[in-house]
Amino acid sequence: MDLRETHQRPFGPPVDGSSHHRGIFAQHIAAHEGRIVDSPDDALLAEFSSVIAAVNCTVDIQREFAGRNASLLLMVAPEIALYLPRHMK
């Protein structure tokens, strides 16, 4: 997802998606005791203490965007990928 896009609100001025969407991600990452490791361009790299916390965070983010999309003319669908290194047990 390109967070630099400008999205139209149904009844208002355009809003810059990058800061708004980063805030949503940061809120959920912190709530699941994760931390943002890096944020190159329009991406975020977060680290969690467990796979369960990472998956729960992902589900919560997707649910929030689904709820927000219900009232928007332009839907936002973030792409979220989870990576589990082979050496983790």
Q: Mean pLDDT, as a whole number?
A: 75
Count of helical stretches: 2
Query: Helix amount, in percent?
Result: 25-40%
Category by helix and strand content: alpha+beta
Number of domains: 1
Q: Low-confidence parts lasting 5 or more residues at pLDDT below 50?
A: 1-16
Fraction of residues in β-strands: 5-15%
Q: How would you characterize the largest beta sheet?
A: 2 strands, antiparallel
Q: Determine Rg (CA atoms, Å).
A: 14 Å
Tertiary shape: globular
Give the N-terminus to C-terminus distance in angstroms: 31 Å
Order of helical and strand elements = EEHEEH
DSSP summary, beta strand count: 4
Strand order of the largest sheet: 1-2
Note the main attributes of this structure.
single chain; 89 residues; alpha+beta; two-stranded antiparallel sheet; 2 helices; 4 strands; globular
